[in-house]
Amino acid sequence: DGVANLVDNCPSMSNADQADADGDDIGDVCDPCPEAANPAGAGCPASIYEVKTGEVAEGSQVSVTGVVTATIESRFFLQVAEADWDAEQGVLNSGIYVYMSASQVDNTAAVVVGDSIRIDATVSSYYGQIQLSGVSGIDVLAQGQAIPEPVVVEPADVMTGAADAAAHEAVLISVTGAVTATTAPAGPGDQ
Fold first, then answer.
1. Closest CA to 66 of 44, 37, 46, 38
2. pTM score
């Protein structure tokens, strides 16, 4: 394109005009989100709602914010703060699970329940459940934030195959009524 690679904002593709609508120093022709700044290759800004409802495709690199609601070793659950809930969806699709491998833990900030964070990760699916994985960065924006109150649901609302079951994944809930839990019999090596 006639622009030297050292100063080209998209050296891998021709873009003589060097257009950069969002001002993030990544040329529009090679920027996955040319209308939203994602400096230094950070994920495209997205909401947890957009990820969970499929508006953001699996495999996309995203940057989302939320409040950590639970942790399990290096993995955690992230939910939209109640004050930021979508007027139409409310609690539905407001939570997501974040999977981090042991090698990612050494390269990212540790989080605790109540941290408000921004995370750069890849949208993935694990056995049909939408999650974030491939974490490339975590920024703790604030600590000690209120986590959303559990939403009261009936067992039929969240059981396998229920219409809103997937929308409640990774959301804090309180189940009312009778719940039947089945436990698989112990297998070899189980105690």
1. 46
2. 0.79
